[in-house]
Amino acid sequence: MAGKAARSLAKVLVVLFFMFPIFWILVMSFQTNGEILSLPPKLVFTPTLLNYASLLVGHLKTSVGMLTITFMRNVMNSFILSAGSVALALVLGVPAAYAFARFKFRFSEDIAFTLLSLKFAPALLVVLPVALEFQQIGLDNTYVGLIWIYQLITLPLILWIVRSYFEDVSPDIEYAYRVDGHSWLGGFVKIAIPLAGPGIAAAGLLAFIFAWNDFIFALVLASGPKQPVTVGALAFVTASGIQYGQIAAAVVLSIIPTFAIALYAQRWLVEGLSLGAVKG
Question: Rounded to two decimals, what is the model's pTM?
Answer without folding.
Answer: 0.81
